[in-house]
Amino acid sequence: MTTIIIGAGASGLACAICLKQNIPNEKVVVLERLSSPGRKILATGNGRCNLTNTSADGFSQVTDFFGGLGLVTIEEDQGRIYPYSLKAQTVLGVLLNACEKYGVELVTDCTVTEIKSDLSVCTSKGIFKGDAVVVAAGGKAQKNLGSNGSGYELLKNLGHSCSETYQALVQLVSSSKYPRLIKGTRARCGVSIELGGEIVGSEYGEVLFTDYGLSGIAVMDISHIVSKNFAGESPEKCVAVIDLAPKMSARELLSHIEKFGSLEGVLGKELSDILTKQAQGDTKKIAEYAKSWRLIITGTKGFDFAQITGGGIPLSELCGFESKFAKGVYICGEVLDMQFPCGGFNLDFAWSSGIGAAKQIAEKRKNDKNK
User: Fold this and answer.
1) What spatial distance separates the first Cα and last Cα of the chain, rounded to whole Å?
2) Does residue 279 sit in helix, strand or coil?
3) Fewer CB within 10 A of the end CB, N or C, for the chain?
4) Residue 90 pLDDT grade (very low, low, confident, very high; cuts 50, 70, 90)
5) Taking a C-beta distance cutoff of 8 angstroms, is the pair 361, 3 a contact?
6) How far from 252 is each of 19, 244, 273, CA to CA, in Å?
7) Mean pLDDT, residues 82-94
8) Residue 216 has what pLDDT?
9) CA distances (Å), origin 200, targets 28, 236, 244
10) How distant, in Å, are the alpha carbons of 143, 214, 303, 334, 350 from that of 339?
């Protein structure tokens, strides 16, 4: 029996290895559009690969899987799990070593053009015939790392729908000059997004001020709201409202300014100076800006900079991970309409959904054999 896997990213490689672990005699062929597998894995976690999170649904399954491959992990702040080496290359190396050990066939520079109802996969390198096909082609984020959105079209041709896709976990662009003047400055803030005069979402965490606008975990986690707004035909006016001192009141900040002359002892020199300049030295306004600094947002950095894609194939169109419309076709990873915040949760879903698809195929093989 043969399983064809489309995409040699996190979910595709995890699926391939788990399949061979469960069905040693299965022929597993992984088709990858790029010249080398796992390119996006290398970029995760700023090159350190935030594998999973202690609060993620698939935490135990993912850590057991990698522990079985010999990868040692460590836990950092907020439950983030990394390889002990703190190098994404270590993770990819362990995966590729396992593929070689178990006899997974990797075919690179291979563009898939169609999945037929008989489970034949048409590609730039010919037709591959499978008894099962796994679509782990990723979304549309960072296409230079492998995901170009082609998986959606392959699945739509099999009868699936696709909810509107948008950039998620992406940086925000501002027309304000102030972030540019303090680029490189980081702060732990409350961040809210205001659309048409109404607050529609809030997050707390690190904010990084840049030459184009805003980045940082809190910004990335709330960015999907901005993406959806600007994807619409008539986007509403968008403002990021930043609380630079969420643990202090405006009254406490004003008292501090009156006593010490500025907020440098609270916010640091860069932020204190920029607020003082914007408020033209008005102490009351400085305190107000520190609690509600309004920056106009004009969009996001786009799919090329987004960590993940929002939207995709609805889970309601699956039975487990098998397509309800195309028997023998399984879907996992970012191509599905499942998005999570920063912290290892999205990569956790990629691994665990690939493993889940593999186990479902293995169970089906077992049941068919026993009939």
Assistant:
1) 16
2) coil
3) C
4) very high
5) yes
6) 60, 13, 18
7) 97
8) 95
9) 46, 12, 19
10) 18, 21, 15, 8, 10
190 bridge partner residues: 204, 243
Q: Which residues pair with 3 in a beta bridge?
A: 28, 132
Q: Rounded to the nearest 10 degrees, what angle do helices 345-370 and 10-22 cross at?
A: 30
| Residue 233, amino acid | E
Cβ density class 125-145: b for 16+ within 10 Å, e for less: eeebebbbbbbbbbbbbbeeb
d(CA 297, CA 237): 8
Cβ atoms of 176 and 350 closer than 8 Å = no
Summarize pLDDT for 10-42 with one digit per residue, the tens: 999 999 999 999 999 999 999 999 999 999 999
What six digits make up the tokens of 4? 């064809």
pLDDT, tens only, 196-238? 999 999 999 999 999 999 999 999 999 999 999 998 889 999 9
Beta bridge partners of 299: 173
**Which tokens in the block code for residue 294?**
């309004």
Is the distance from CB of 98 to CB of 17 less than 8 angstroms? yes
Residue 80 CA to residue 139 CA, distance in Å, equals 23
Q: Which two tokens stand for residue 102?
A: 């178990």
Tell me if residue 53 falls in helix, strand or coil.
strand
Q: Is the pLDDT of residue 71 over 90?
A: yes
Q: How many CB atoms lie within 10 A of CB 298?
A: 16
Indicate the DSSP class of residue 143: G
- Which residues have C-beta within 8 Å of that of residue 294, sequence separation ≥ 6? 194, 239, 240, 241, 242
Mean pLDDT across the chain, nearest whole number? 96
Residue 145 φ then ψ, to 5°: -100, 5
Closest CA to 266 of 279, 252, 280: 252
